[in-house]
Amino acid sequence: MDELITAVKTVGIPCVIKPLMSSSGKGQSVIKTEADIEKAWNYAQAGKRGDYTEVIAEAFVKFNSEITLLTVTQKNGATLFCPPIGHRQERGDYQESWQPAEINSEYLKEAQVMADKVTKALTGEGIWGVEFFLADDGVYFSELSPRPHDTGMVTLAGTQNFSEFELHARAVLGLPIPEITLERVGASAVILADKEGVHPTFTGLENAMNNKLSDLRIFGKPVTRPYRRMAVALTYDKVGSNVEAIKKRAIEIAKMVKVESE
User: Fold this and answer.
1) Do 49 and 82 have their domain in common?
2) Are 36 and 84 in a shared domain?
3) Of the residues 25, 77, 158, 204, which is catalytic?
4) Do residues 73 and 173 both lie within one domain?
5) Tens of pLDDT, residues 137-186
6) Same domain, 114 and 155
7) Angle formed at CA 122 by CA 109 and CA 5, multiple of 5 degrees
8) ∠224-252-153 over CA atoms, to 5°?
9) Active site residue 25
């Protein structure tokens, strides 16, 4: 707590406080006044994962967009990068993603260098979800997930020759991955629960599945709660297609499906 007070003075107010180990925005908050410091500390401790008590204090960065750079480290092969994935978040949770994301070649190379360095330092084989902010003055590293990434579910739309889950399995098993290629343009949009409950059921599936160049994935979670991701809508088209139109279709299809629970 004393170190946090010092850190806030260093990075300035407002700033973002995060548990050292977390996911999907849990335990994260914004300090807007000095009176918020203790609240942020307690909230981070309540929302953290694992036994780490440390927190991260981050200054605000003015950025234009975010990307996920799925990075694959191999035991006996080169580190590979998937085509960049754009995404939009609410409440610290991803709501939609698309691949490929628009990014200039210099920024992409900069992001790849950062992702290569951080994954090598952490060691191990598998897929990493490395997130970046894209700002006017360059690329900022945001955070990293040592596993298949939620925004990477767009790869289930066949956007790559291997989905993120296939890539992770190959890398963990020590099987070769010769290359990763872009096969389609795709988008994903989440389907959320709106209340607490059990034994969820889904309505609107027939309408949702009666759309061309699309698919659904239901996660099989037995419990619902507000804003919990229960399924995802996927849309795709050939390389060179209009990404905005594909994103719009994914959102429209996701809205057709409702989650009910007891």
Assistant:
1) no
2) no
3) 25
4) yes
5) 999 999 899 999 999 999 999 999 999 999 999 999 999 999 999 999 99
6) yes
7) 95
8) 60
9) yes
Q: Which of 3, 102, 106, 143 is an active site residue? A: 143
Catalytic residue among 36, 66, 96, 131: 131
Task: Determine the structural domain holding residue 36 and report its residue range.
Answer: 2-59
At 44-91, the pLDDT tens digits run 999 888 888 899 999 988 899 999 999 999 999 999 999 999 999 888
Active site residue 23: yes
**Could you confirm whether 131 is annotated as catalytic?**
yes
Catalytic residue among 58, 229, 241, 260: 229
At 75, is the secondary structure helix, strand, or coil? coil
Residue 24 has pLDDT above 80, yes or no: no
CA distance 43 to 119: 29
Q: Is the pLDDT of residue 262 over 90?
A: yes
SS3 of 93, please? strand
CATH number at residue 180: 3.30.470.20
